[in-house]
TrEMBL record:
InterPro entries: DUF4729 (IPR031732). The lineage of its organism: Eukaryota, Metazoa, Ecdysozoa, Arthropoda, Hexapoda. Residues 134-330 form the DUF4729 domain. This is DUF4729 domain-containing protein. It comes from Hermetia illucens. It comes from the Eukaryota.
């Protein structure tokens, strides 16, 4: 009786088996179960490499500057992959640091493509702080991520703290109306939120695509097309000249809520950290457009304090209306005050 061992049929044909009771001696290097497993693992590694290469090609095509948005129709994807060779992929990968983590590499490649003409902008965007910020609205004060500012105001402030929302670019203005009665002393309110789309209406040159800011996240489906816009908050606060004194305790002692002669309204714009300074023109005028106050300022960074009694001491990026100007623009509190906003993005 043969002492044939269980093995591959093709391998058995190569072996000679003894007729006795002793174990067969292998003349050839017959594959064992471990050899088969090694071949299987090698096949898996090759398959995984092919899948990784295919996925990388798709990412490179989607992030290629030839396309104006980040989506490709499925019917066109196969054609793009056929035209996108492995050499193209290697050249594309050489733009990033191979030793960095995958997320960092993907972000770096994307930013190199959309902001390749401004290398400093790319480096600055990567170095932008990702630390969360506090909502500047006094009645809210939630902690929010820097990419969730627009989402926070669209989701949370639409219901609890109604706020106007407008989509603008460098060629359009924003006009808002407010009454002095909506303010409480030393409480910040958001008069409106702007989704700034860039210097022009070109959909391929939005702020996030140009490397000016990070893209928005967690947007409601209705507002998903504002993914690359820059959120800008129109802030306002009513306070008193007493509260901007260096001696805060003295200011509180001198404050008299019945004395409105020292009342002031502070208007300013705030946004997330950007790689370039964004300017704006703030103009406050009356209903008949006979009187106005205007200033050109920088849009303030939300990572810094938004309390006027704190930042007014060493910052000039705001419009201040004193009691006399408030009375003129509101026609002695008989009419609303209108404000006009223009966003300016100057070339470096």
């Amino acid at each position: 009786m043969s002492n044939k061992m269980k093995s591959c049929k093709n391998c058995d044909a190569m072996q000679e088996f003894s007729e006795g009771t002793g174990p067969p001696r292998k003349k050839f290097n017959q594959p064992t179960m471990y050899d088969h497993m090694e071949s299987y693992c090698k096949f898996k590694r090759m398959k995984a490499h092919e899948e990784e290469l295919q996925a990388a090609k798709e990412k490179c095509i989607i992030q290629n500057s030839k396309f104006t948005n980040l989506t490709i129709e499925p019917s066109k994807l196969d054609e793009c992959l056929r035209n996108f060779s492995t050499q193209n992929l290697v050249k594309f990968k050489m733009k990033s640091n191979e030793n960095e983590e995958f997320e960092y590499e993907a972000e770096r490649r994307f930013l190199d493509e959309v902001a390749r003409k401004n290398a400093n902008s790319v480096d600055s965007l990567i170095n932008i702080s990702r630390s969360p910020i506090n909502c500047p609205v006094t009645a809210c004060s939630q902690t929010i991520g820097i990419t969730s500012v627009l989402s926070h105001f669209l989701r949370d402030h639409k219901q609890c703290f109604p706020v106007d929302f407008q989509d603008i670019d460098g060629n359009r203005r924003s006009v808002l109306i407010f009454d002095e009665s909506i303010f409480n002393y030393n409480e910040n309110i958001c008069l409106g939120i702007l989704a700034y789309g860039g210097k022009d209406s070109n959909e391929g040159n939005r702020p996030a695509q140009a490397g000016i800011c990070r893209a928005n996240s967690f947007l409601p489906e209705k507002y998903s097309h504002f993914f690359h816009h820059l959120p800008i908050l129109i802030m306002g606060c009513k306070t008193s000249l007493n509260f901007i004194l260096a001696d805060k305790e003295l200011g509180e002692q001198l404050f008299d809520p019945e004395d409105k002669s020292k009342d002031i309204i502070i208007l300013w714009l705030a946004t997330v950290e950007t790689t370039k300074t964004i300017h704006c023109t703030i103009t406050a005028f009356d209903h008949d457009m006979t009187s106005s106050r205007s200033t050109i300022v920088e849009v303030r960074n939300l990572k810094y304090p938004q309390n006027p009694s704190v930042f007014m001491a060493d910052d000039i990026n705001y419009l201040m209306l004193n009691r006399g100007e408030i009375n003129i623009l509101s026609m002695n509190e008989q009419a609303s005050i209108e404000i006009e906003i223009f966003i300016h993005e100057f070339d470096d």
